[in-house]
Amino acid sequence: MTDPLRVGFGERLAESMRARGALCVGIDPHPSLLHAWDLDETARSVERFAMTVVEALAGEVAILKPQSAFFEVYGSAGIAVLEKVIAEARQAGALMLLDIKRGDIGSTMAAYAMAYLDEHAPLAADAVTVSPYLGYGSLAPAIGIAEQTGRGVFVLARTSNPEGAGLQQSIHGSGDSVAQYIVDSAAESNAGAEPMGHVGVVAGATIRSDELDFSRLNGPILAPGLGAQGATVQSLRAVFGAALPNVLPATARDVLRHGPTVNGLRAAARKVREEVQDLLRG
Ligand SMILES: O=C(O)c1cc(=O)[nH]c(=O)n1[C@@H]1O[C@H](COP(=O)(O)O)[C@@H](O)[C@H]1O
């Protein structure tokens, strides 16, 4: 059980980015990372892995992002670990973005929203990732419940993987690309919100620099792809331009490979965070 949140997600995230710098680190217990950390592939080891990341980074980075699939692999034991990780990290002062990439018809979307965004949900995080493939409008229950409970959603717009381009760059009925339509729809959902709305978008740090116009969006832009997927902090300026202050660069493996020590993880995250801060200053 979590307390009702009185301040909206956009405002909480903006404050966290201001105080801690703009960086999201993924909690992705890949089997290869578990082995590199001298752990086996069990729910117990996943707990050890995730809790080490929480200990290292809950007070350091703007937001942490556990990827649900890496926990779901272990069935109910893995979900129990995920529940514990979210609760303890939030207790330790972290904002938690649960990466679930869910999307469904509106009535089922409402059930997903109750599972992850309702204040009484055992798996309630501060925000979740959602997929708009069933239409932006189908996400309305999640956007609505998130707003009521002080939480947020990040809508996939232009993902970091090479396979995303064909579908997301194709032309939508509005005349813009599908990805641009998602960005503009998120902007509409956030209309009037200060300093940032609770509806963010996901746009990979790996995409071309001329693909999207973020100028109407007053919401956060999650930018995964740094490190393991080939994007660099330097490439963020070209991709996001004037929208850079709202960009939340994200990385997982490139930091996690510096475990298993708390100090190793912290030093790696600080290094990326400083590069991002330099970029924002320069
Ligand atoms: O929604 C996401 O988080 C996401 C969207 C996207 O377009 N690309 C992407 O890589 N991600 C997630 O971000 C993380 C990237 O991990 P690394 O490639 O190890 O930095 C993974 O958990 C992905 O599932």
From TrEMBL:
<dbReference type="InterPro" id="IPR011995">
    <property type="entry name" value="OMPdecase_type-2"/>
</dbReference>
<dbReference type="GO" id="GO:0006207">
    <property type="term" value="P:'de novo' pyrimidine nucleobase biosynthetic process"/>
</dbReference>
<dbReference type="InterPro" id="IPR013785">
    <property type="entry name" value="Aldolase_TIM"/>
</dbReference>
<keyword id="KW-0665">Pyrimidine biosynthesis</keyword>
<feature type="active site" description="Proton donor">
    <location>
        <position position="101"/>
    </location>
</feature>
<feature type="domain" description="Orotidine 5'-phosphate decarboxylase">
    <location>
        <begin position="22"/>
        <end position="268"/>
    </location>
</feature>
<dbReference type="InterPro" id="IPR018089">
    <property type="entry name" value="OMPdecase_AS"/>
</dbReference>
<comment type="similarity">
    <text>Belongs to the OMP decarboxylase family. Type 2 subfamily.</text>
</comment>
<protein>
    <recommendedName>
        <fullName>Orotidine 5'-phosphate decarboxylase</fullName>
        <ecNumber>4.1.1.23</ecNumber>
    </recommendedName>
</protein>
<keyword id="KW-0210">Decarboxylase</keyword>
<dbReference type="InterPro" id="IPR001754">
    <property type="entry name" value="OMPdeCOase_dom"/>
</dbReference>
<keyword id="KW-0456">Lyase</keyword>
<comment type="pathway">
    <text>Pyrimidine metabolism; UMP biosynthesis via de novo pathway; UMP from orotate: step 2/2.</text>
</comment>
<dbReference type="GO" id="GO:0044205">
    <property type="term" value="P:'de novo' UMP biosynthetic process"/>
</dbReference>
<dbReference type="Pfam" id="PF00215">
    <property type="entry name" value="OMPdecase"/>
</dbReference>
<dbReference type="InterPro" id="IPR011060">
    <property type="entry name" value="RibuloseP-bd_barrel"/>
</dbReference>
<dbReference type="GO" id="GO:0004590">
    <property type="term" value="F:orotidine-5'-phosphate decarboxylase activity"/>
</dbReference>
